[in-house]
Amino acid sequence: MLSLLARGGGHYGAVAVYLGLASCSLQNFDTLSSGLDADGGRAGAGGSAAGEAGGGGRGGNASIGGGGGVPAGPGGSGNPSGGNPGAGAGPGGNGSSGGVSPSGGNGGSPQLGDGGAGLNLLQDPSFAAGHVGWAQFGNAALADAPGEGRDGSQCLAATSRTETFAGPSIHLEPLVVPGQLYAVEAWVRTSASTTQTTSISLKTVCNGASDVYTPLASASAAAGEWILLDGSFTAETCTLDEYTLYIEGPEIGVDLYVDDVGLYLLQ
Question: I need a labelling partner for 182 at 20 to 30 A (CA). Which of 43, 47, 66, 151 fits?
Fold first, then answer.
């Protein structure tokens, strides 16, 4: 090249310049082409996971005109049937066949009580941890009764009863929605050696009105026998001063055992 330039002018000089530029351009083109082939034009790799998109290829190290390489394009978003092409210098690879994505498990069905139709709204219905939230109705004493439950575990006992309506009770105001239908149940047993009448009842006191007592269920319990009391009611819609569910019935002085109580929304 230098020898041609030394000869000076004319066509040789023009040819030398032309060849020099051509040589330089071809060399740069080879370099650029190599850079694109090596780094810029690769197809993005297909996702290894189902539905994962291939990544885009990296841009070349240089571009014509001295500018920097094209930034790498982001990979395409995956979909269940394979990856979308990556958006970059090179096309994204095909994703492997997309499997069906696992769907979340179905929520568990509400635990039904013996006579209920939904989730039990009463906490600790078998009184395993005590009788929090329960109080005596009438003149009676409430106590936990270990070993007296239906399955030999703990239940609730109402003792020292001086009235037939005396027994355990619970306020319903924070538990029910006015106008909704509910089912209620309780297993009961007495300490008597004779058959006793047992009942579930509801006391309703609307603001400014007289007390109303409503029997919901009643059954006779033979000596030593556990029986199920179950009934239903529509929650009062008035402004309530008191709304109390209570269990009653045996003769005065007879202890009343209660286990596995339930309150269930029916609609």
Answer: 151
Question: What is the Cα–Cα distance from 133 to 46, expressed in whole angstroms?
Answer: 61
Q: What is the CA radius of gyration of the chain?
A: 43
Q: Provide, for the chain, the percentages of residues in helix, strand and coil under a 3-state DSSP scheme, each rounded to the nearest 5.
A: 15, 35, 55
Q: What is the maximum span of the chain, computed from C-alpha positions, in angstroms?
A: 137
CATH of 134-265, one of 3.40.50.11930, 2.60.120.260, 2.60.40.10, 3.30.460.80: 2.60.120.260
Q: Strands of 256-265's sheet, edge to edge?
A: 141-145, 155-159, 256-265, 181-190, 227-234
- Residue 237 Cα distances to 117, 204, 216, 245, 264, angstroms: 22, 11, 18, 16, 18
Of the chain, the percentage scoring pLDDT greater than 70 comes to 56
Q: Give me the DSSP letters along 90-140.
A: SPBPPPPPPPPPPPPPPPPPPPP-SS-SS-B-SSSTT-TT--TTEEEESS-
- Residue bearing tokens 């007390």: 211
The residue ranges of every structural domain in the chain are 2-83, 134-265
Distance CA 111, CA 40 (A): 61
Q: Give 83-141 pLDDT, tens digit per residue.
A: 343 333 344 444 433 333 334 334 333 334 444 458 999 999 999 999 999 999 999 99
Cα separation, 216 vs 91, in Å, equals: 74
Q: Which residue has the higher pLDDT, 234 or 117?
A: 234
d(CA 151, CA 187): 12
Per-residue b/e over 161-194, b at no fewer than 16 CB within 10 Å?
beebbbbbbbebeebbeeeeebbbbbbbbbbbee
Check: CB of residue 112 under 8 Å from CB of residue 128.
no
